[in-house]
Design goal:
By secondary structure, the chain is α/β, with parallel strands linked by helices. About 30% of the residues lie in helices and about 20% in strands.
Length: about 140
């Protein structure tokens, strides 16, 4: 794993337990690749997708509120139109660190989350690039 490029990235990774909102069974979609990237680096991860029960052999929950309690950092890989609801769910769940992956950004939702005290990584680095990912 590469060294994180910023203190925000380091703090995100230090949480040590991760969820991918927008997890997918389609290996060509970023929701699948981001989840596999966590797995590739030996990081504990769960998926969040209301239509799935498992992705790549790990549990998939219908919503963030269904993920078992404990510290959790969240990667968002969903359409920007869903960002506000996802970030509100993350806040209600007590998530402090969120990484909105490129293509999932909604500026207003990100600003609201930051105003609420969440640490949001957005408008820049992709987890796949920062950690290093290769398709198997």
């Amino acid at each position: 794993m590469r060294k994180p490029a910023s203190p925000e990235l380091a703090a995100f990774l230090a949480v040590g337990r991760f969820a991918v909102v927008g997890a997918s069974q389609d290996r060509q979609k970023y929701g699948n690749r981001v989840l596999r990237c966590y797995q590739m680096h030996g990081l504990p991860v769960v998926g969040v997708n209301p239509k799935l029960q498992t992705v790549e052999g790990v549990a998939c929950h219908a919503r963030l509120g269904d993920v078992p309690a404990g510290a959790l950092a969240v990667s968002v890989v969903a359409p920007p139109a869903a960002a506000r609801a996802i970030l509100a769910d993350a806040q209600a769940r007590g998530v402090r660190h969120v990484w909105v992956q490129p293509g999932a950004e909604d500026a207003a939702a990100i600003a609201e989350a930051r105003a609420a005290g969440m640490v949001v990584i957005a408008d820049g680095p992709c987890l796949l690039v920062q950690l290093g990912f290769h398709d198997d």
